[in-house]
Design brief:
mainly beta, 30% strand, three-stranded antiparallel β-sheet, 96 residues
C-alpha cells in the first residue's frame, strides 16, 4: 500500500470567484467589460452561512517518489452523525 500525504498551505473562499455569490454567481454574464470589486473581512463572516461553505486550498501532495502542488476544493455539507452534522446545511467550520 502506498502512503499519500496532503498538506494544505493557503485557503480562500470560492465566493470571491462567484460560487454561491448573491449577485456574481459562477458563470453569470454581466455584460462585456463589467467589473466590480468587493472586500470581505474574513473575521466578520459566518463560515457556516451557505455562501461561505465552499473553500479552495493550495496543497502539497506527496507519495514516496513524487511531490506535487494542487488546488483542493472542499465543500462539506449534509447529515453525518459521527461529525455532529444533523441537517443538510450543517457544515464544517474550517478556519481560513
Amino acid at each position: 500500500m502506498t502512503e499519500h500525504t496532503l498538506e494544505t498551505r493557503q485557503k480562500s473562499l470560492t465566493k470571491d470567484i462567484g460560487h454561491n455569490h448573491s449577485t456574481w454567481g459562477h458563470g453569470i454574464w454581466k455584460g462585456e467589460f463589467v467589473t466590480e470589486r468587493e472586500r470581505i473581512n474574513l473575521d466578520d463572516i459566518n463560515r457556516l452561512d451557505y455562501p461561505n461553505i465552499r473553500v479552495q486550498q493550495v496543497a502539497t501532495g506527496s507519495q514516496p517518489k513524487n511531490t506535487g502542488y494542487q488546488i483542493l476544493e472542499t465543500l462539506i455539507i449534509g447529515r453525518h452523525t459521527p461529525s455532529g452534522f444533523k441537517d443538510y446545511f450543517d457544515g464544517a467550520n474550517m478556519p481560513l
